[in-house]
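ok trying this again, last paste got cut off
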Amino acid sequence: MLNRRSIKAFTLVELLVVIGIIALLMGMLMPALSKARHSAVRTQCAANLRTMGQLWHMYANDFKGAFPDWNQGYGTWELLPDDQKQFFIQRYKFRNGKSFYCPSSRGFTGGAFADEDWNNNPGSSAAGVTWIIGYSIFAASDNAVAWDKSLGNRFPPPFKSNEKRLAERPLFMDVTLKYGPPYTPMITWGYSGHTEGLRGGKPAGENACYGDGHVSWKNWSEIKLKLVNYPNQFERWF
């Protein structure tokens, strides 16, 4: 027969101590896990941009050095014309639409994930059929040229693969877009990527793919205001 006096159980104090230790360990691990997750997202984002850079240079090789252009003069640079999308698919057998979307981005056309926009026409007012992507296309954009002049930066986008200083001039980059006048951080910077832990309402930084094909990450402190189309609204940072 079982002796009830031999049965041992945790006291309330012991349970509270165990719970406290578990909570302490979780508190120590969560920041490390969060940092690792953000690092993985940035790494995947950089891989996406390298893939896009390869596509742009493959296109340039087929068109006498000219990068794909998007010269409709509209404010957003996150639009890919349908003819270019179909060209990438048919000529280069490119079918992985996820490469056009930063993992930190949200869907614009109703999907929970940004890459669902790959097959959703956004109904843009731009001429022809367009597709929203998760990166800002800077290369071969007359609109970017106009914005560049508005701030006197003398930092024109590259139009061809044989231009000078390509290592300093981006083809495309993460969306880092300030919309004002100031609202809440998630409205003011709501279209930007890498907004984890919004410090003072600003993104953590951005990846960019440059004209020579290399990709690099810049922290927020390294990013500068480069372009704006009218005062206090739609500022572009890279």
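PB: full thing came through this time. The radius of gyration is 23 Å.
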